[in-house]
TrEMBL record, chains A, B, C:
Source domain of life: Bacteria
InterPro entries: Amidohydro-rel, Metal_Hydrolase
Matches recorded under PANTHER family: AMIDOHYDROLASE 2 FAMILY PROTEIN, NODULIN 6
Listed transmembrane segments: none
Record domain Amidohydrolase-related: where: 148-367
Molecular function terms, GO-annotated: hydrolase activity
Origin organism lineage: Bacteria, Bacillati, Actinomycetota, Actinomycetes, Kitasatosporales
Protein name (Swiss-Prot/TrEMBL): Amidohydrolase-related domain-containing protein
Amino acid sequence: MIETPSLVDQYCHGVLRTELGLGTFEAHLSHTEGPPAPGTTLFDTQTGFAVRRWCPPLLGLEPHCAPARYLARRRELGVLASGRRLLRGSGITTYLVDTGLPGDLTEPGELACAGAAEAREIVRLELLAEQVADTSGTVESFLANLAESVHAAAANAVAFTSVAGVRHGLALAPEPPGPGEVRGAAGRWLAGRGVGGELSDPVLLRHLLWSAVASGLPLQLHAGLGAPGLRTDRTDPVLLTDFVRATAGLGTDLVLLHGYPYHRNAAHLAGVFPHVHVDCGAALVRTGARAATVLAEILELAPFGKILFSTGAQGLPELHVVGARLFREALGRVLGTWVDEGAWSLADAQRVAGMLASGNARRVYGLDQGT
Amino acid sequence: MIETPSLVDQYCHGVLRTELGLGTFEAHLSHTEGPPAPGTTLFDTQTGFAVRRWCPPLLGLEPHCAPARYLARRRELGVLASGRRLLRGSGITTYLVDTGLPGDLTEPGELACAGAAEAREIVRLELLAEQVADTSGTVESFLANLAESVHAAAANAVAFTSVAGVRHGLALAPEPPGPGEVRGAAGRWLAGRGVGGELSDPVLLRHLLWSAVASGLPLQLHAGLGAPGLRTDRTDPVLLTDFVRATAGLGTDLVLLHGYPYHRNAAHLAGVFPHVHVDCGAALVRTGARAATVLAEILELAPFGKILFSTGAQGLPELHVVGARLFREALGRVLGTWVDEGAWSLADAQRVAGMLASGNARRVYGLDQGT
Amino acid sequence: MIETPSLVDQYCHGVLRTELGLGTFEAHLSHTEGPPAPGTTLFDTQTGFAVRRWCPPLLGLEPHCAPARYLARRRELGVLASGRRLLRGSGITTYLVDTGLPGDLTEPGELACAGAAEAREIVRLELLAEQVADTSGTVESFLANLAESVHAAAANAVAFTSVAGVRHGLALAPEPPGPGEVRGAAGRWLAGRGVGGELSDPVLLRHLLWSAVASGLPLQLHAGLGAPGLRTDRTDPVLLTDFVRATAGLGTDLVLLHGYPYHRNAAHLAGVFPHVHVDCGAALVRTGARAATVLAEILELAPFGKILFSTGAQGLPELHVVGARLFREALGRVLGTWVDEGAWSLADAQRVAGMLASGNARRVYGLDQGT
C-alpha cells in the first residue's frame, strides 16, 4: 500500500572486495570486542536472522537457509557477481558513501557500478586530519593544509561526517576553540603521534567540527551505537545540545546518525532545532524483526521533513540489502497501520514515505542540483 | 468497550484570544527554537497530523483536510465560536489551569465558560516569586511577601507547579536551603534583576519548592520535555529521587508532569514512593499516532492509582481536543487489548480507565470537596 | 506454537514460610519505600493484576478473583500446600537461588522439594563478606577468611551475585583495588561497623567483584530496578562498561540481572562482549501485561545465545508463577509474531525459545556437568 520506489542511502560504506569464509562473514555481522562466546554464533542475532531472511532469495536460495549453505552459494557465484545481485536487489538508487574506513572496501564509483545506482562521497573529518598530519612537517603547515583539505573536500563531497562521539564522547565544549588553543593542541598531537596515529584530542575534534560547519556542507554526527565506542552513554545525542544551539542559524545542516538506543533524544533535537535532522535507518539493521518499532519511536518527535533513511552498511552488501528491506517493510507496516486506524490519511502516509525514503535526503544534500 | 465518560485535565493552559493566521497557528503546534526548516512545516509532525485528524470534524470539515482550509474555516467561525466548539468537543469536564504563562491567554473562568466545564487554578511558583519581586523593595519584604503570597495562593488554587527543571535542571540539592542561604540568594537575585527578570537561582528555586511542600497543596513538577529547557537530560525525573525521598511522609503529594522520554523513570518513582504521582497525558499530544505505546510504557511500573491524565495544552484549543481524544483512544486500545488477551478482566479495565481519566485527579486535588 | 518445555530460573529467592495476611501479601508485590498511598492498593499494579490472572486457577479459583478471596483460599490450603501447588504449576524445573536475603525464606533444598524441581545456590558476595566480618577479629583474619569463604563458596555454588550497584552505584573504578587499598578500606569498615553492618564501601565492593572473577564462577550483577537502590540511574548497566572491558578474556562469565529500564543498554553489552550475558525475565514480573514488549526490547541487540530467563521472585511463590507464565506467554507471542510475519523461520524460533528458557543457562552455569 505504501510505496517507496526510490531509496537514497544517506550513510553507508563500501563492500569488501575479497571472497569471505564463514568466520569472516560472521565477524562482519556485528561490532564486537572479541570473538563470539563459545557455544554461540553471531548468526543468532537480529542482523543474522535478517540476512538469512532477505539475502538467500537474491542468490537463488530459499529464505532462512543455513549460513554455511548461503556462504557456499555466495562463493560459487563469486564476490563480484553476488555483490551485484545483492546491491541491485536492495532497491537503493543513490549511495552516500563514507570513505573513511580502513580495509579493502569498494570506492563510491565501484559501489555505484555494482549497484547500478548513483554514489557520492562523504568525507570523514578525523581521517582527513590524520592524512594531513601524515604529510605535514609543522603545526603551521598542518593547520594550513587541513584548512585547504577541508575546503577541497567540500567542493566534491556531499557531506562531512565526524566520529568525535566515538573517539572522545559527545560532551565536547560547544564553542569553536580559539586559534592559540588549536595550535597548542595540534603541536602536542603531532609531537606524540606516529604515522597513522588516531585523532582523539577534544580541541582538534572541535576544530574539525567547526571547520566543517564553516564549509556549509551538511555535517553528519555519529551518535548512539553507530560505531564501537568507549561507552555508549557518552554518545547520547542529548550531549550535543549546546553544540547544536551554538550552530543554529549558521546555514549548515546537522544530521544525527544512528542514535539508538538514544534515538528518542535525537528525534527531539530534530524537533526543536531547524537545522537538525535525524537518521532512521542504521538502527534497523541491528534490530531486525524489531525494525518497525524502532522506526516508530523515531517518528514520535521528529518532524517528518527531518528524518532520513540510511543503511549504515559496511563491508557486506548483505547489510545494504537488509537495511533497505527492513526500512521499506517497517515503514509500510508502521504507516499502513496508522492509515488503517484512521490516524493518518493514505495520501499523507504516501507523501511522508517518499520524504523519508529519498525526498528529505535530496533536499538536505542538494542531490538534484548539478555539481 | 472501555468508556471514560468524564475527563479531568490535570494540567493545561488557557487558549489565545486572538484570530490566528496559518503561520502563527503552526508555530503553536510545537516548542521549537527557530522557525521550521526551509522545505518543511510543523504540520508534518505527529501533533500536526493529530490536529488534522480530530479537529476539522468539530468545525464541520472532513478529517485530514489541508491546514489552509482548516484555518480558513476557523477564521470564518471566529476565534470564540471555534474555541467553544473545540473545547466542548474535547470531552473534558474539569480543567486545572496553570496561569503562569505570558501571552493573551484565557483565564480559568473563561476557559470553563467556553468549554461548558469547571476550571480551577494552578499557581506557578516561579512567576509568583517574580511578581512579588517586582513589587518588593528589600530582601526582607520580598521574603515576607513571598511567604504571604504562597499562603494566599494555597487557599484558592488546587496545586502549585514548578519549572525548576527547565530553569536550572532537576539536579537540585534535596534539602530545604537555610534561612541565611535564602536571604543571601534573594539579595543577589534582587540586586541583579530588572522588572520581570526570570528566577533561575537554584537556592530560590529550592526555597519555592519547600514553601509549596509546606503548604500541603499538591506540587506539580515539570520533567522531561514539558517545556523547552536547556538540556533534556537535566529534566530526567530520576534526578528528583533525593528530593522525593526528602519530602516523603510530609503529607504533600508530588505530581511529575510530562516525563517523556524519561516517563519510565517517572513511573518508577510513582511506584516506589507513596506521595508521587505521574502524568500520562501531555506526552500523547506530542507523539500522536504513537500515543497508545507511550501510555502503555507509563502503565508498566506506575501503580494505576497514581496515574493522572492531562493535555498540557497551551494556546490552541485544538491541543486540548487532541490531548483528550488521543488519551481516550489510546486508553481504550491499550486496556481493550489486555482484556482481549485475558491479561486483565473487563471490570478491572473499566475501573482503571475511570481512575486515570478522572478518579485519581479528584482524589489527589480534592475536587469533590467544597472549596 | 512455540514450546518451552523446561524452564531454568537463573535468579530467584526462596518463599516465605509463614501464613500471610492481605496486607503482608500486598507489601510483597512491590519494592516500595512506605505503605501504599491512601486510596490506592499495590494490587492495582501490573504485578498485582498478573498474580490475579495466573495464580487463582492453580488454587482452584477463577482468574482475576478479588484479592481477599484469593488470600482466604490460600490460608485455607495453608502456606505449604498452596506453595507446592503454585511452584509445581510454574513450569520451572531448576531454580538458581540467591540465599543472601534476610527473612524467613526457604532454602534451595526446600524450594526444590516444594516445587518438585532441582535447585542450586547462588552466593551473594556482600552478605558473605558481612558474615565473615562478624566472625573475624582483625583486618588480616578478615581478608584471609574472606578469601577462603569465596573459595569454598565457589566449590558448591553455581554463581556469585553482587548488589554493588544497589549499595554504591555501578560507577565503580574498573580495575581491582591494590592490596594496601583493600587493607585500608577493610580496616576502616571493620572499625566502624557493628555486627550485621552492611557493606557499601566501594573499595571492598570492587575487591569482592574481583575475588569472584578470580574464582571462575559466573558473576551476576544487579542492574536497573532489580532491588531498591539509592537512585535508578546509578544502576544503569552502561556504567559497567569499563569493568566489563577489564574482565574480558579472563574466562569468567558476567550476567547482567534485571536491567529494566536500561535493558537496551544491558543487551548492547551482551552484544559487544563475549563474556557478558543478559537476564530477560525479572523485568517481566514488574511489567505484567507489557511483558512481550519488554522482552522484545531485550531481543533487539542481545545475541540469542546470551539471553537467560529468570523470575527474580522473592518471598511469594506467586511471583515464581507469574515470572514463568509471563515469560512463556511473552516469548510465544513475540517469536510467534515474527514467524507469522516471515521474519523468522519456525525452526529458528523454536531453537531460540529453548535457548532462552533453559539452554543458555545450562551452558553458562554448567548445569549438565556433574558436581
